[in-house]
Amino acid sequence: MASVSHLFHLEIGVRIMSENIKVEEYILSMENITKIYSNGFIANKSVNFKVRKGEIHALIGENGAGKSTLMKVLFGQEQPDSGEIFYKGKKTNITNPLVALHMGIGMVHQHFMLVPSLTVAENMVLGVEPGKYGMFSYKEAVKLTNDISKKYNLPIDAEAKIMDLPVGFKQRVEILKILLRGVDVLILDEPTAVLTPQETDELFKQLKVLKEKGYTIIFISHKLHEIKKLCDNLTVLRNGRVTGTAKVSDLTEQEISKMMVGRDVFLTIKKDVAQPKETVLSVKNLSWVDKHGKRVVNNLSFSVRAGEILGIAGVEGNGQRELTNLIARLEENQIGEILLYGKSIAKQSIREIREQKISHISEDRMTFGTVYEATIEENIISDRFYKKEFNKNYLMDAKKIKNHVNELIKEYNVRTDSKDLPIRTLSGGNMQKVVVAREFSSDPKLVIANQPTRGIDVGASEFIRKKLVTLRDQGAAVLLVSADLNEVIEVSDSIVVMCDGSIVAYLKDAKRVTEEQLGEYMLGIKKQSDEELREVVHD
Amino acid sequence: MINKIENQFKFIRIAISISIALLLAFLIISFVSKDPLFAMYNLIIGPFENIRRVGNIVELMIPLLFTGVGVSIMYSAGQINMASEGAFFLGGVAAAYVSVTFLLPYGIHPVVAMIAGGLIGGLIGLIPAILFVKFKALPVVSSLMLNYISYFLGMYVIHYIIFDPETGYLSSFLYKETAILPKLFSVTRIHWGLVIGLIVVVLGYLFLKKSKWGYAIRMIGMNPNFAQYSGINVGFYILLCQLIGGAIAGIGGAVEQLGMYSRFQYQKLSGHGFDGVLVAILANYNPKFVPLAAFFIAYVRVGADVMARNSDVPIEIVSIIQAVIIVFVASERFLAGWKHRKIVKASQERFASEEA
């Protein structure tokens, strides 16, 4: 009798213990999460995601695989259509980000959520302002900031304005901000996307310190070497579903990438040596001043020849966007000259430029690249709808346009049920394919591609990169702007590095360039001499 | 599939909005009326009780065809231009001037009057657009102000140029017989304006939805940055479509005068331009649906009129019905949750069938 009861107690004891372990083990567990967006896009399908306390857990997958959506669900920015979230063993209902923060989950977004004109201290306490009787105490805010920065050994100038800080420090402010709110779990959404290799190393050091202090970190990325360097475990998403969870050390990069895309990715692009011919685009002493009086583009001179790909590397926001917008005539009031086939474009309209077979892939797909509410067809024909071949008498030739668009959809492998669906029903990668189908199908002589593969899946990226090389082989001049160093090095024939609106390096043979080398120029640590830079102008 | 649900919901939303509006109207009628059922009967069935009332609906609908199509074209470029009101009014005044002072043969006279109305209407529609393109002045503000200018300008013409002192009230001379638009059917007052209006609907549809100009205008309306990036001359097309929209409203004003009146008698702005906004919203800025929307608005108006004459409910109830419909049709998130659940279900089904 006694032994039976003893056994019974033992069993309960074991069960309680195992439950305790489970609670200890998984600080966070998301079960069967399904999220479908209003355009019918299934972002997450029955996703299970578990994180142990005190680990750095990588959440990886191609762009559009559903990583960000899953984290938005966790942070309360999106509501799941089904599924449950357990946090510290308790079932929770995270209705908005404040609830998440209150529970102890904080998120650092890819795009910083800071007020640029305020100081670090003011940003830190936004929403939890210290002070008495409804009065804000700035002193207290500075003190809080300094305390927390000392505690975690993340030095920062509390009284500096956010807009004066480099990107790496802005990110540090974001991390400190959520630490100040007393979180246990930090979600970092592609934190290295905007950082140089050197800044990335610095970030990793900080994250390891936080891990030692017992914080749990969810690290979203699609850069495999970073994950190998930093993370303990990983969960891979593909097409909104989990394809695997494993210890990072058990896998090679090749194995991880297979889990991500379901096949081996070619990280290199096969191409022949470029055969540059005549100069198509030449930029001479180009400057541009923004409305705040800042010289965003500073005395640029370079040229692009037919049959070559000139890459422009640089941290985002160093004048690349303004440069391409000036060439595409979206921005006015240039100082200096932009010559197309030796003729200045200053007096030409955008249509006149486009009719000289200039294509432009804007980095801002939502503002310039597409009309969100319009159909795929309407998005494709925007640069050619007026041409004689697509019009009959006074109306557009619906049949001809239909055939043309359907051909392009097939050729560029846009995955959709019909050309008449709004483009917003497509995934990011397919949306970009529509943009590319429009820009690449007009037999371009000069292609300005600004971040052509940002935010889209590996398959579509590979497709677009190959197309760029094909266009080059057909004799087009290509200007490729990208913050993805791997892309710049692989696709370009030569590389120009921009920093602070100026060209700081011209690297004639892209094949012999390393990411670290580019990083030093991008950060402004190194700069080439004027003699070396002069070579980028071919006259 | 998703597309189908989206299209379904456009109609479901309008249908539910109308139902809610009528329900609300019925509630109010029950409060104010001694015999609410009788009043309601007059409101709903009354307009169809005899051929004369059906005629009234069509007569009311004719000017709305013009302003509805005009506003659809103007708004498609993303311009909230309210000048259709002033354009309609001055279009009528211009037609009155031509009808009173010109000596022209049958057939030619109304055409010249309509051209005059269209020209002045186009000019009125163009002014806020010029102010926007040149100086970035918001058209919604400048066009509303412009309506006062149009009104007083029109009244000046009536008062000092074609004023008939014999009538004892503020009106123009009689329109010459050659200028009048003939009636279509003898029993009602439905006139040739209906035919002209329907032609405008067809042309407006082809222009906005099937021509290259309409394509450019719609792209500008949805995303002007994209249009500019693609090489479309944004400023030019904004001017063009405001000119055309205003001209159509102006022609509408002329047609209304020549079809319904024998002399110019408006003492204030007629409201047809603002009704055009109402019609355009209900028609989702698609000229194809303008006749339907215009018919509905005219039907509700005639119903309210019949009800006011036969029962103890005042005609103002019609404003409530209209306002409620517009609020629901214009509110983006109305029924969004239902739609989302339907899309979720459809996607899951599609997903399941793909898996199988």
SSE layout and pairing:
The complex is a heterodimer of chains A (539) and B (356).
Chain A: H1 2-25, E1 26-36, E2 42-52, E3 56-60, H2 67-74, E4 82-87, E5 90-92, H3 97-103, E6 105-108, H4 120-124, H5 138-151, H6 167-180, E7 185-189, H7 197-212, E8 216-221, H8 224-230, E9 233-238, E10 241-247, H9 253-261, E11 279-289, E12 295-305, E13 309-313, H10 320-327, E14 335-340, E15 343-344, H11 350-355, E16 358-361, H12 365-369, H13 376-380, E17 391-392, E18 395-396, H14 398-411, H15 428-440, E19 446-450, H16 458-473, E20 477-482, H17 485-491, E21 494-499, E22 502-507, H18 515-522, H19 530-534
Parallel strand pairs in A: 3-8, 3-9, 6-7, 7-8, 13-20, 13-21, 16-19, 19-20
Antiparallel strand pairs in A: 1-2, 1-4, 4-5, 9-10, 11-12, 11-14, 14-15, 17-18, 21-22
Chain B: H1 2-32, H2 36-44, H3 51-76, H4 84-101, H5 108-135, H6 139-160, H7 193-210, H8 212-222, H9 224-229, H10 234-260, H11 272-282, H12 290-310, H13 317-330, H14 336-355
Helix pairs in contact in B: 1-2, 1-13, 1-14, 2-12, 3-7, 3-10, 3-11, 3-12, 4-5, 4-6, 4-10, 4-11, 5-6, 5-10, 7-8, 7-10, 8-10, 11-12, 12-13
Overall residue-averaged pLDDT value of chain A:
86
Radius of gyration of chain B equals: 22 Å
Instruction: Predict the CATH topology of chain B.
Output: ABC transporter involved in vitamin B12 uptake, BtuC
Q: Which ranges of chain B are low-confidence, i.e. pLDDT below 50, for 5 or more consecutive residues?
A: none
Could you explain the architecture of this structure?
The complex is a heterodimer of chains A (539) and B (356). Chain A has 539 residues and is α/β, with parallel strands linked by helices. Chain A folds into 3 domains: 2-261, 3-Layer(aba) Sandwich (Rossmann fold); 275-357 and 445-452 and 476-539, P-loop containing nucleotide triphosphate hydrolases (Rossmann fold), CATH 3.40.50.300; 358-442, 3-Layer(aba) Sandwich (Rossmann fold), CATH 3.40.50. Chain A has 19 helices and 22 strands. In chain A, the strands form 5 sheets. In chain A, strands 6-7-8-3-9-10 form a 6-stranded mixed β-sheet, with helices on both faces. A 6-stranded mixed β-sheet of chain A has the order 16-19-20-13-21-22, with helices on both faces. A 4-stranded antiparallel β-sheet of chain A has the order 2-1-4-5. In chain A, a hairpin with a 2-residue loop joins strand 9 (233-238) and strand 10. Mean pLDDT of chain A is 86; it is low at 1-23. Chain B has 356 residues and is mostly helical. Chain B has one domain (34-312): ABC transporter involved in vitamin B12 uptake, BtuC, CATH 1.10.3470. In chain B, 74% of the residues lie in helices and 0% in strands. Chain B is built from 14 helices and no strands. Chain B has helices at 2-32, 36-44, 51-76, 84-101, 108-135, 139-160, 193-210, 212-222, 224-229, 234-260, 272-282, 290-310, 317-330, 336-355. In chain B, helix 4 (84-101) runs antiparallel to helix 5. Chain B is globular and about 80 Å long. Chain B starts with a helix and ends with a helix. The chains are: A alpha/beta (539), B mainly alpha (356). Chains A and B meet through helix 11, helix 12 and strand 18 of A and helix 1, helix 8, helix 9 and helix 14 of B.
